[in-house]
Design goal:
- The chain is α/β, with parallel strands linked by helices.
- The protein has 16 helices and 20 strands.
- The strands form five sheets. Strands 3-2-1-4-20-19-18 form a seven-stranded mixed β-sheet, sandwiched between helices. It has a six-stranded parallel β-sheet with strand order 6-14-7-8-10-9. Strands 11-12-13 form a three-stranded antiparallel β-sheet, with no helix packed on it.
- The longest helix has 24 residues.
Length: 469
Protein backbone atom coordinates (compact mmCIF):
# COMPACT_ATOMS: atom_id res chain seq x y z
CA UNK A 1 0.00 0.00 0.00
CA UNK A 2 2.82 2.37 0.95
CA UNK A 3 4.58 1.63 -2.34
CA UNK A 4 1.45 2.44 -4.34
CA UNK A 5 0.84 5.68 -2.44
CA UNK A 6 4.50 6.66 -2.80
CA UNK A 7 4.30 6.03 -6.53
CA UNK A 8 1.19 8.19 -6.88
CA UNK A 9 2.85 10.96 -4.87
CA UNK A 10 5.94 10.87 -7.11
CA UNK A 11 3.74 11.01 -10.21
CA UNK A 12 1.90 14.09 -8.90
CA UNK A 13 5.17 15.83 -8.03
CA UNK A 14 6.63 15.01 -11.43
CA UNK A 15 3.50 16.26 -13.17
CA UNK A 16 3.50 19.56 -11.29
CA UNK A 17 7.21 20.08 -11.88
CA UNK A 18 6.81 19.50 -15.60
CA UNK A 19 3.95 21.95 -15.74
CA UNK A 20 6.03 24.69 -14.14
CA UNK A 21 9.18 23.88 -16.08
CA UNK A 22 8.10 26.34 -18.77
CA UNK A 23 7.88 29.23 -16.30
CA UNK A 24 11.31 28.55 -14.85
CA UNK A 25 12.89 28.86 -18.32
CA UNK A 26 11.47 32.35 -18.92
CA UNK A 27 13.99 35.12 -18.26
CA UNK A 28 11.39 37.90 -18.48
CA UNK A 29 8.08 38.88 -16.94
CA UNK A 30 4.80 37.82 -18.50
CA UNK A 31 3.05 41.12 -19.19
CA UNK A 32 -0.72 41.13 -18.65
CA UNK A 33 -3.11 44.02 -19.29
CA UNK A 34 -6.54 43.87 -17.66
CA UNK A 35 -9.08 46.30 -19.10
CA UNK A 36 -11.51 47.31 -16.36
CA UNK A 37 -10.99 48.15 -12.70
CA UNK A 38 -14.15 46.51 -11.34
CA UNK A 39 -14.63 43.20 -9.51
CA UNK A 40 -13.78 41.00 -12.52
CA UNK A 41 -10.58 42.96 -13.11
CA UNK A 42 -9.42 42.82 -9.51
CA UNK A 43 -10.30 39.17 -9.00
CA UNK A 44 -8.46 38.26 -12.21
CA UNK A 45 -5.44 40.24 -10.99
CA UNK A 46 -5.57 38.57 -7.59
CA UNK A 47 -5.62 35.05 -9.03
CA UNK A 48 -2.94 35.61 -11.67
CA UNK A 49 -0.55 37.30 -9.26
CA UNK A 50 -0.92 34.39 -6.86
CA UNK A 51 -0.74 31.50 -9.33
CA UNK A 52 1.15 32.72 -12.41
CA UNK A 53 4.87 33.09 -11.69
CA UNK A 54 6.80 36.17 -12.78
CA UNK A 55 3.76 38.20 -13.85
CA UNK A 56 3.39 41.97 -14.23
CA UNK A 57 -0.22 43.17 -14.31
CA UNK A 58 -1.37 46.57 -15.53
CA UNK A 59 -5.03 47.43 -14.94
CA UNK A 60 -6.51 50.24 -17.01
CA UNK A 61 -9.83 51.85 -16.08
CA UNK A 62 -11.73 54.58 -17.94
CA UNK A 63 -12.70 56.36 -14.70
CA UNK A 64 -10.02 57.80 -12.41
CA UNK A 65 -11.34 55.69 -9.52
CA UNK A 66 -11.41 51.89 -9.16
CA UNK A 67 -13.92 49.24 -8.00
CA UNK A 68 -16.58 49.59 -10.71
CA UNK A 69 -19.99 48.35 -9.60
CA UNK A 70 -18.80 47.83 -6.03
CA UNK A 71 -18.46 51.61 -5.80
CA UNK A 72 -21.25 52.65 -8.15
CA UNK A 73 -23.72 49.75 -8.13
CA UNK A 74 -23.90 48.41 -4.57
CA UNK A 75 -26.62 50.13 -2.56
CA UNK A 76 -25.29 52.70 -0.04
CA UNK A 77 -27.13 50.96 2.81
CA UNK A 78 -25.26 47.71 2.07
CA UNK A 79 -21.77 48.61 3.34
CA UNK A 80 -21.02 44.99 4.20
CA UNK A 81 -21.10 44.09 0.50
CA UNK A 82 -18.41 46.69 -0.15
CA UNK A 83 -16.01 44.92 2.22
CA UNK A 84 -14.61 43.14 -0.85
CA UNK A 85 -12.75 46.41 -1.44
CA UNK A 86 -10.36 45.33 1.33
CA UNK A 87 -9.36 42.34 -0.80
CA UNK A 88 -8.94 44.55 -3.87
CA UNK A 89 -6.72 46.93 -1.89
CA UNK A 90 -4.44 44.05 -0.89
CA UNK A 91 -4.09 43.07 -4.53
CA UNK A 92 -3.23 46.66 -5.43
CA UNK A 93 -0.36 46.61 -2.92
CA UNK A 94 1.37 43.78 -4.78
CA UNK A 95 4.69 45.03 -6.25
CA UNK A 96 3.77 43.57 -9.66
CA UNK A 97 0.41 45.38 -9.85
CA UNK A 98 -0.05 48.79 -11.45
CA UNK A 99 -3.23 50.80 -11.82
CA UNK A 100 -3.86 53.33 -14.60
CA UNK A 101 -7.15 55.16 -14.14
CA UNK A 102 -8.60 57.70 -16.55
CA UNK A 103 -7.46 55.60 -19.53
CA UNK A 104 -10.10 54.43 -21.99
CA UNK A 105 -9.84 51.48 -24.35
CA UNK A 106 -10.96 52.57 -27.81
CA UNK A 107 -10.37 56.23 -27.03
CA UNK A 108 -6.90 56.63 -25.52
CA UNK A 109 -5.47 53.29 -26.54
CA UNK A 110 -6.59 50.66 -29.05
CA UNK A 111 -6.88 46.94 -28.49
CA UNK A 112 -4.28 46.35 -31.22
CA UNK A 113 -1.81 48.56 -29.34
CA UNK A 114 -2.40 46.61 -26.14
CA UNK A 115 -2.00 43.28 -27.93
CA UNK A 116 1.42 44.38 -29.20
CA UNK A 117 2.52 45.64 -25.77
CA UNK A 118 1.39 42.67 -23.64
CA UNK A 119 1.58 38.89 -23.77
CA UNK A 120 -2.00 38.65 -22.50
CA UNK A 121 -4.98 41.02 -22.55
CA UNK A 122 -8.07 40.33 -20.42
CA UNK A 123 -11.22 42.35 -21.15
CA UNK A 124 -13.32 42.93 -18.00
CA UNK A 125 -14.98 46.31 -18.53
CA UNK A 126 -18.51 45.06 -17.79
CA UNK A 127 -21.98 46.00 -19.01
CA UNK A 128 -23.16 49.59 -18.93
CA UNK A 129 -26.06 50.13 -21.33
CA UNK A 130 -29.68 49.29 -20.66
CA UNK A 131 -31.90 46.68 -22.20
CA UNK A 132 -34.91 48.54 -23.61
CA UNK A 133 -38.59 47.62 -23.40
CA UNK A 134 -39.17 48.92 -26.94
CA UNK A 135 -42.68 50.15 -26.22
CA UNK A 136 -44.32 53.45 -27.25
CA UNK A 137 -43.55 56.38 -24.95
CA UNK A 138 -40.39 54.92 -23.45
CA UNK A 139 -38.58 58.21 -24.22
CA UNK A 140 -40.88 60.41 -22.10
CA UNK A 141 -39.50 62.62 -19.35
CA UNK A 142 -39.05 60.94 -15.97
CA UNK A 143 -38.88 57.50 -17.61
CA UNK A 144 -35.37 56.23 -16.90
CA UNK A 145 -33.44 53.09 -16.24
CA UNK A 146 -32.80 51.75 -12.76
CA UNK A 147 -29.10 51.80 -13.70
CA UNK A 148 -29.28 55.56 -14.18
CA UNK A 149 -31.20 56.08 -10.95
CA UNK A 150 -28.75 53.92 -8.99
CA UNK A 151 -25.83 55.78 -10.58
CA UNK A 152 -27.46 59.08 -9.63
CA UNK A 153 -27.69 58.34 -5.91
CA UNK A 154 -24.35 56.49 -5.91
CA UNK A 155 -22.39 59.34 -7.52
CA UNK A 156 -21.50 57.87 -10.92
CA UNK A 157 -19.75 60.62 -12.93
CA UNK A 158 -22.07 61.93 -15.64
CA UNK A 159 -25.29 61.01 -13.82
CA UNK A 160 -25.23 63.70 -11.14
CA UNK A 161 -27.41 65.88 -13.39
CA UNK A 162 -30.10 63.22 -13.87
CA UNK A 163 -32.47 65.16 -11.59
CA UNK A 164 -35.34 62.66 -11.29
CA UNK A 165 -38.63 64.39 -10.51
CA UNK A 166 -39.75 63.06 -7.13
CA UNK A 167 -42.72 65.41 -6.78
CA UNK A 168 -45.32 62.79 -7.72
CA UNK A 169 -46.77 60.28 -5.27
CA UNK A 170 -46.39 57.10 -7.35
CA UNK A 171 -43.41 55.31 -8.86
CA UNK A 172 -43.47 52.30 -11.17
CA UNK A 173 -40.53 49.89 -11.28
CA UNK A 174 -40.61 47.54 -14.27
CA UNK A 175 -38.80 44.33 -13.37
CA UNK A 176 -38.48 42.59 -10.01
CA UNK A 177 -34.83 41.79 -9.53
CA UNK A 178 -32.55 43.01 -6.75
CA UNK A 179 -31.75 46.26 -8.55
CA UNK A 180 -35.45 47.14 -8.68
CA UNK A 181 -35.77 46.37 -4.97
CA UNK A 182 -32.71 48.54 -4.25
CA UNK A 183 -34.41 51.48 -5.96
CA UNK A 184 -37.66 50.82 -4.07
CA UNK A 185 -35.83 50.65 -0.75
CA UNK A 186 -33.96 53.91 -1.35
CA UNK A 187 -37.20 55.67 -2.30
CA UNK A 188 -39.08 54.38 0.76
CA UNK A 189 -36.42 54.38 3.50
CA UNK A 190 -36.54 57.37 5.87
CA UNK A 191 -33.92 59.95 4.89
CA UNK A 192 -32.51 60.04 8.44
CA UNK A 193 -31.38 56.43 7.95
CA UNK A 194 -29.88 57.06 4.52
CA UNK A 195 -27.94 60.09 5.78
CA UNK A 196 -25.62 57.72 7.66
CA UNK A 197 -24.53 55.95 4.45
CA UNK A 198 -22.25 57.06 1.61
CA UNK A 199 -25.21 58.10 -0.55
CA UNK A 200 -24.52 61.43 -2.28
CA UNK A 201 -25.62 64.61 -0.54
CA UNK A 202 -27.43 65.92 -3.61
CA UNK A 203 -29.61 62.80 -3.69
CA UNK A 204 -30.28 63.11 0.06
CA UNK A 205 -31.49 66.65 -0.53
CA UNK A 206 -33.76 65.48 -3.36
CA UNK A 207 -35.10 62.52 -1.35
CA UNK A 208 -35.82 64.77 1.63
CA UNK A 209 -38.19 66.75 -0.61
CA UNK A 210 -39.73 63.61 -2.15
CA UNK A 211 -43.53 63.30 -2.21
CA UNK A 212 -43.46 59.61 -3.13
CA UNK A 213 -45.91 57.45 -1.20
CA UNK A 214 -46.37 54.38 -3.40
CA UNK A 215 -43.81 52.28 -5.23
CA UNK A 216 -45.14 49.61 -7.61
CA UNK A 217 -42.77 46.81 -8.64
CA UNK A 218 -44.21 45.00 -11.64
CA UNK A 219 -43.06 41.66 -13.06
CA UNK A 220 -44.11 39.75 -16.19
CA UNK A 221 -44.24 36.37 -14.49
CA UNK A 222 -45.48 35.07 -11.16
CA UNK A 223 -44.23 34.93 -7.55
CA UNK A 224 -42.43 31.63 -8.18
CA UNK A 225 -40.37 33.31 -10.90
CA UNK A 226 -39.53 36.48 -8.95
CA UNK A 227 -35.90 37.49 -9.46
CA UNK A 228 -35.23 39.17 -6.11
CA UNK A 229 -33.51 37.34 -3.25
CA UNK A 230 -34.85 36.58 0.20
CA UNK A 231 -32.36 38.95 1.85
CA UNK A 232 -33.59 41.87 -0.25
CA UNK A 233 -37.23 41.03 0.46
CA UNK A 234 -36.61 40.81 4.21
CA UNK A 235 -35.16 44.31 4.13
CA UNK A 236 -38.21 45.65 2.31
CA UNK A 237 -40.54 44.13 4.88
CA UNK A 238 -38.65 45.88 7.69
CA UNK A 239 -38.61 49.46 6.35
CA UNK A 240 -40.07 51.76 9.02
CA UNK A 241 -43.48 53.29 8.26
CA UNK A 242 -43.81 51.30 5.05
CA UNK A 243 -46.37 48.59 4.36
CA UNK A 244 -45.83 45.88 1.74
CA UNK A 245 -49.14 45.20 0.01
CA UNK A 246 -49.47 42.11 -2.17
CA UNK A 247 -52.29 41.10 -4.49
CA UNK A 248 -53.63 37.84 -3.10
CA UNK A 249 -54.90 36.89 -6.57
CA UNK A 250 -51.26 36.66 -7.72
CA UNK A 251 -50.77 33.75 -5.31
CA UNK A 252 -53.77 31.66 -6.37
CA UNK A 253 -52.75 28.08 -6.99
CA UNK A 254 -49.64 28.32 -4.81
CA UNK A 255 -50.49 25.68 -2.21
CA UNK A 256 -48.63 24.04 0.65
CA UNK A 257 -47.86 21.12 -1.67
CA UNK A 258 -46.49 23.51 -4.29
CA UNK A 259 -44.15 25.15 -1.79
CA UNK A 260 -42.94 21.85 -0.33
CA UNK A 261 -41.79 20.63 -3.74
CA UNK A 262 -39.72 23.76 -4.48
CA UNK A 263 -35.91 23.88 -4.23
CA UNK A 264 -34.87 25.18 -0.81
CA UNK A 265 -33.94 28.81 -1.78
CA UNK A 266 -37.18 29.26 -3.75
CA UNK A 267 -39.16 27.51 -1.02
CA UNK A 268 -37.89 29.92 1.66
CA UNK A 269 -38.63 33.07 -0.33
CA UNK A 270 -42.10 31.80 -1.32
CA UNK A 271 -42.88 31.01 2.30
CA UNK A 272 -41.81 34.53 3.27
CA UNK A 273 -44.03 36.06 0.58
CA UNK A 274 -47.02 33.97 1.69
CA UNK A 275 -46.39 34.87 5.33
CA UNK A 276 -46.34 38.55 4.39
CA UNK A 277 -49.54 38.20 2.36
CA UNK A 278 -51.32 36.65 5.33
CA UNK A 279 -50.01 39.25 7.77
CA UNK A 280 -51.43 42.28 5.95
CA UNK A 281 -51.94 45.13 8.42
CA UNK A 282 -54.13 48.21 8.34
CA UNK A 283 -52.48 51.31 6.90
CA UNK A 284 -51.75 54.42 8.89
CA UNK A 285 -52.33 57.75 7.18
CA UNK A 286 -48.59 58.49 6.97
CA UNK A 287 -47.50 54.99 5.89
CA UNK A 288 -45.81 54.56 2.55
CA UNK A 289 -46.62 51.54 0.37
CA UNK A 290 -44.53 48.98 -1.47
CA UNK A 291 -46.75 47.18 -3.99
CA UNK A 292 -45.30 44.12 -5.80
CA UNK A 293 -47.45 43.08 -8.77
CA UNK A 294 -47.07 39.94 -10.87
CA UNK A 295 -48.37 38.73 -14.25
CA UNK A 296 -48.17 42.13 -15.95
CA UNK A 297 -46.21 43.14 -19.06
CA UNK A 298 -45.82 46.81 -20.14
CA UNK A 299 -47.25 47.72 -23.54
CA UNK A 300 -47.54 51.52 -23.61
CA UNK A 301 -46.37 54.62 -21.70
CA UNK A 302 -49.00 57.33 -21.35
CA UNK A 303 -48.59 61.08 -20.86
CA UNK A 304 -47.88 64.20 -22.88
CA UNK A 305 -44.22 65.10 -22.39
CA UNK A 306 -43.80 63.39 -19.01
CA UNK A 307 -44.89 59.90 -18.02
CA UNK A 308 -48.28 59.71 -16.28
CA UNK A 309 -49.16 56.02 -16.38
CA UNK A 310 -48.39 52.72 -18.08
CA UNK A 311 -50.71 50.22 -19.72
CA UNK A 312 -49.89 46.64 -18.77
CA UNK A 313 -51.27 43.51 -20.38
CA UNK A 314 -52.27 40.66 -18.09
CA UNK A 315 -50.07 37.63 -18.70
CA UNK A 316 -50.40 33.90 -18.23
CA UNK A 317 -47.60 31.40 -17.85
CA UNK A 318 -47.02 28.79 -20.53
CA UNK A 319 -43.93 26.64 -20.19
CA UNK A 320 -42.61 29.18 -17.67
CA UNK A 321 -42.95 32.01 -20.20
CA UNK A 322 -45.19 35.06 -19.80
CA UNK A 323 -47.76 35.23 -22.60
CA UNK A 324 -49.69 38.48 -22.98
CA UNK A 325 -53.50 38.42 -23.09
CA UNK A 326 -55.97 41.04 -24.31
CA UNK A 327 -56.78 42.18 -20.76
CA UNK A 328 -55.15 45.52 -19.94
CA UNK A 329 -54.55 47.31 -16.63
CA UNK A 330 -53.50 50.94 -16.31
CA UNK A 331 -51.16 51.83 -13.42
CA UNK A 332 -50.46 55.47 -12.67
CA UNK A 333 -46.96 56.70 -11.90
CA UNK A 334 -45.10 59.97 -12.30
CA UNK A 335 -41.67 58.34 -12.27
CA UNK A 336 -40.81 55.06 -14.00
CA UNK A 337 -37.60 53.04 -13.73
CA UNK A 338 -36.96 50.22 -16.16
CA UNK A 339 -34.99 47.38 -14.54
CA UNK A 340 -34.82 44.53 -17.02
CA UNK A 341 -31.09 44.07 -17.44
CA UNK A 342 -27.96 45.46 -19.07
CA UNK A 343 -25.81 44.94 -22.12
CA UNK A 344 -22.16 45.55 -22.79
CA UNK A 345 -20.89 47.61 -25.71
CA UNK A 346 -17.98 47.17 -28.05
CA UNK A 347 -15.55 49.99 -27.30
CA UNK A 348 -13.00 49.00 -29.95
CA UNK A 349 -13.54 47.82 -33.55
CA UNK A 350 -11.07 44.97 -33.08
CA UNK A 351 -13.24 43.27 -30.45
CA UNK A 352 -15.24 40.29 -31.67
CA UNK A 353 -18.57 41.41 -30.28
CA UNK A 354 -22.06 39.91 -30.29
CA UNK A 355 -24.31 42.97 -30.59
CA UNK A 356 -27.51 40.97 -30.20
CA UNK A 357 -26.57 39.49 -26.83
CA UNK A 358 -24.34 42.37 -25.76
CA UNK A 359 -21.17 40.46 -24.93
CA UNK A 360 -17.78 39.47 -26.31
CA UNK A 361 -17.80 36.28 -28.39
CA UNK A 362 -15.92 33.67 -26.39
CA UNK A 363 -15.66 30.04 -25.37
CA UNK A 364 -14.96 29.60 -21.66
CA UNK A 365 -13.32 33.03 -21.56
CA UNK A 366 -11.18 32.56 -24.66
CA UNK A 367 -12.13 35.26 -27.17
CA UNK A 368 -12.71 34.02 -30.70
CA UNK A 369 -11.29 35.64 -33.80
CA UNK A 370 -13.71 37.72 -35.85
CA UNK A 371 -15.71 35.66 -38.38
CA UNK A 372 -14.03 32.50 -37.15
CA UNK A 373 -14.38 29.66 -34.69
CA UNK A 374 -10.68 29.86 -33.89
CA UNK A 375 -9.47 31.21 -30.56
CA UNK A 376 -7.68 34.57 -30.66
CA UNK A 377 -4.66 33.46 -28.65
CA UNK A 378 -3.68 35.78 -25.82
CA UNK A 379 -7.06 37.55 -25.63
CA UNK A 380 -9.54 36.67 -22.86
CA UNK A 381 -12.73 38.03 -21.34
CA UNK A 382 -14.07 37.77 -17.78
CA UNK A 383 -17.11 38.98 -15.86
CA UNK A 384 -20.34 40.30 -17.34
CA UNK A 385 -18.60 41.32 -20.56
CA UNK A 386 -18.19 37.63 -21.33
CA UNK A 387 -21.16 36.02 -19.60
CA UNK A 388 -23.84 38.68 -19.79
CA UNK A 389 -25.13 40.51 -16.70
CA UNK A 390 -26.07 37.78 -14.28
CA UNK A 391 -25.24 36.83 -10.72
CA UNK A 392 -23.73 38.69 -7.79
CA UNK A 393 -20.16 39.65 -6.87
CA UNK A 394 -19.41 36.07 -5.76
CA UNK A 395 -20.49 34.86 -9.21
CA UNK A 396 -18.10 37.34 -10.83
CA UNK A 397 -15.28 36.23 -8.53
CA UNK A 398 -15.74 32.56 -9.46
CA UNK A 399 -15.86 33.43 -13.16
CA UNK A 400 -12.72 35.58 -12.95
CA UNK A 401 -10.87 32.82 -11.09
CA UNK A 402 -11.94 30.25 -13.69
CA UNK A 403 -10.81 32.40 -16.62
CA UNK A 404 -7.51 33.13 -14.88
CA UNK A 405 -6.91 29.42 -14.40
CA UNK A 406 -7.73 28.92 -18.08
CA UNK A 407 -4.98 31.42 -18.94
CA UNK A 408 -2.50 29.55 -16.77
CA UNK A 409 -3.52 26.20 -18.28
CA UNK A 410 -3.13 27.58 -21.79
CA UNK A 411 0.43 28.64 -20.98
CA UNK A 412 1.29 25.35 -19.28
CA UNK A 413 -0.10 23.29 -22.13
CA UNK A 414 1.66 25.26 -24.85
CA UNK A 415 -1.55 26.69 -26.28
CA UNK A 416 -0.34 30.20 -25.48
CA UNK A 417 3.31 31.08 -26.07
CA UNK A 418 4.74 33.80 -23.85
CA UNK A 419 8.36 33.45 -25.02
CA UNK A 420 8.39 36.92 -26.53
CA UNK A 421 9.39 39.68 -24.13
CA UNK A 422 6.78 42.42 -24.26
CA UNK A 423 7.44 46.05 -23.29
CA UNK A 424 4.09 46.89 -21.70
CA UNK A 425 2.42 50.16 -22.64
CA UNK A 426 3.66 53.67 -21.89
CA UNK A 427 0.77 55.54 -20.27
CA UNK A 428 2.78 58.68 -19.52
CA UNK A 429 1.29 60.40 -22.59
CA UNK A 430 -2.13 60.32 -20.86
CA UNK A 431 -3.29 61.92 -17.65
CA UNK A 432 -3.32 58.51 -16.06
CA UNK A 433 -4.32 58.17 -12.41
CA UNK A 434 -2.02 55.97 -10.34
CA UNK A 435 -3.00 54.00 -7.24
CA UNK A 436 -1.31 56.63 -5.07
CA UNK A 437 -3.37 59.28 -6.88
CA UNK A 438 -6.55 57.33 -6.13
CA UNK A 439 -5.61 57.17 -2.46
CA UNK A 440 -5.57 61.00 -2.40
CA UNK A 441 -9.13 61.01 -3.79
CA UNK A 442 -10.12 58.34 -1.29
CA UNK A 443 -8.69 60.31 1.65
CA UNK A 444 -10.49 63.48 0.54
CA UNK A 445 -13.82 61.65 0.24
CA UNK A 446 -13.46 60.10 3.69
CA UNK A 447 -12.47 63.46 5.14
CA UNK A 448 -15.52 65.16 3.58
CA UNK A 449 -17.72 62.32 4.81
CA UNK A 450 -16.61 62.79 8.42
CA UNK A 451 -17.87 66.37 8.30
CA UNK A 452 -21.30 64.97 7.43
CA UNK A 453 -21.17 62.01 9.88
CA UNK A 454 -21.07 59.48 7.04
CA UNK A 455 -18.42 57.03 5.70
CA UNK A 456 -17.52 59.23 2.72
CA UNK A 457 -18.84 61.88 0.39
CA UNK A 458 -17.97 60.83 -3.15
CA UNK A 459 -16.44 63.25 -5.61
CA UNK A 460 -18.63 62.91 -8.69
CA UNK A 461 -16.81 65.22 -11.12
CA UNK A 462 -13.89 63.71 -13.05
CA UNK A 463 -12.41 67.19 -13.48
CA UNK A 464 -12.54 67.73 -9.72
CA UNK A 465 -10.83 64.36 -9.16
CA UNK A 466 -8.04 65.27 -11.56
CA UNK A 467 -7.58 68.72 -10.03
CA UNK A 468 -7.25 67.15 -6.60
CA UNK A 469 -4.34 64.96 -7.67
Amino acid sequence: MFTVRNSIFKTLISSNLSKFKYFSTLNHEIKVCIVGGGPAGFYSSQYLLKHLPNTQIDVIEKLPVPYGLVRYGVAPDHPEVKNVINTFNKTAQHPNFKYYGNVSLGKDVSLDELRKAYNIVVLTYGSEIDTLLNIPGEDKKNFMSAREFVGWYNGTPGLEELNPDLSGEEVILIGNGNVAIDVARILLTPVDILKKTDITEYSIEALSRSKIKKVYMVGRRGPLQAAFTIAELREMLKIPKTQTIWRSADFEGITADTVTSLPRPKKRITELMLKSVNEAKSLSSDDKQFLPIFFRSPIKVNGDSQVESIDFSHTVLKNDRAIATNDVENITGQLVCRSIGYKATSVDPSINFDDKNGRVVNIHGRVLQKDSTEVDKGLYVAGWLGTGPSGVILTTMNNAFQISQTIIDDIKNGVLNCDEKKPGFDYSKFRAVSWDDWKKIDEKEVEDGKKLNKPREKIVSVDEMLKLI
